[in-house]
Amino acid sequence: MDRTEYEDQPQALAQVVAWHRSFYGHTKKDSMETWLSPQISDQFLAFPGYSVLRQDREGRRGGGVAILCRSEIEAQRMSMPAGGALETLWASVSWRGGRPTTVGVVYRPPDSPEASSLEHLQEQLRAARCLGRPVFLLGDINLNVLDAASPRICRYNSLLSELGLVQLVNQPTHLHPVPTALDHVLTDQRDPVPEVEVLPVAISDHQPVIVTARLGRVRRPPEWRTARPWRRCDWDAVCLEFLGADWSAVDGATDVNVCVREFMTIWNSVFDRLCPARRVRVSRPDCPWLADDPALRALMSERDAARDTWICLRSPESKADYLRLRNSVKSQLIKARRDFFCDELASGDRRDFWTRFRRISATRRPRPAAAADAPEQAAAWADELNRHFATVGSRIADELRQVATEGRHAQRPPTVCSTSFQLQPATLPELCERDGEAEVTGQWQ
Fold this sequence. Notes:
Layout (H helix, E strand, L loop, with lengths): L15 E4 L30 E6 L9 E6 L2 E6 L8 E9 L5 E7 L6 H16 L5 E6 L10 H12 L3 E2 L15 E5 L7 E4 L10 E4 L11 E4 L7 H10 L3 H4 L4 H19 L3 E4 L6 H4 L2 H20 L2 H32 L2 H11 L13 H32 L22 H14 L4
Parallel strand pairs: 6-7
Antiparallel strand pairs: 1-3, 2-3, 4-5, 5-6, 7-9, 8-9, 10-11, 12-13
Helix pairs in contact: 3-5, 3-10, 7-8
């Protein structure tokens, strides 16, 4: 059953009504059922905000079970093995694409054979357990579980134990003429155990039973991206590799496409070796307020189209149109984000809200250093930078000199920021002399 104080928690509670009680005042002793027939349409059932799943009794009056489910919770009817005289209805329930939960309702008429009904119940529970989802079964089985010493209850408890299920109702749900617990709640969830409450106010000769249980969390598949870790790249080694690479294929290319292809071959070979691409898992989720607002996504598409038009035309009118749409998108984004977090805070679990807020909205910042260590760390970092820039020129010069002595073809870097090199303009006779020596020895200096 459902009540008003749980209306504000649709995401934290499984607000599914297992309805096998009397309907519109129809009450029959020891037989609490919907009393609906196939001739009665769902449109005559006044339950605003709920969807209805029914399993009516056929052939005779009475009986029937139904599930009333909140509109924002997805519920799909499931097929189970035939139950004989047992009246059951099963549904797969999930909230916003989260992990599905199997929910069933059951009614066993008091005049039905007990042994066969329990066999059919066992078959359906076994089929529900085989799906690997949380299972909840609620209903009137007409067995008094408070009489634990009875042989029939011992067989019933043994059946539940074999299937890994527990029965949660331990208070009387049928008070007259003798207090008995005929309405059961069966589940395989033990951590945490769902809360069960038997309300003191009766709507028939059975007491209403409220079950509070969490629906499965939304588990999106992980998103992966392939990227190069540029921050960890050794740029000195990259420059050295480019300086020592053989660029003859690029210089000798006569077609621009061949030139680009040869250049990218050298480029990719260097970075594949020194900065290989890695498959990275995206830890921060996308903006959920965009997924539920098609109007905002359409406005963003209009903004992108207006930007493309402005880039092509470069007219004052196209620029004004683009700026207007851009400002409109900004304001709508702020409003959608604010509404999303307000709804999450008002209707969700506040313990989970701040975790989601930090994951989605909070900016990651590096941990600040301690006050006592800050001056020393700043000085050490400054010294490291000074040592790097003071030695980079001489280090590259030594490496280039070593490459030249080994006989490999190496190009001189176009720009060198160091006092180790002094650039002087060369005269024409000097260039001719160097060119002649290179032709004789086959080496460039």
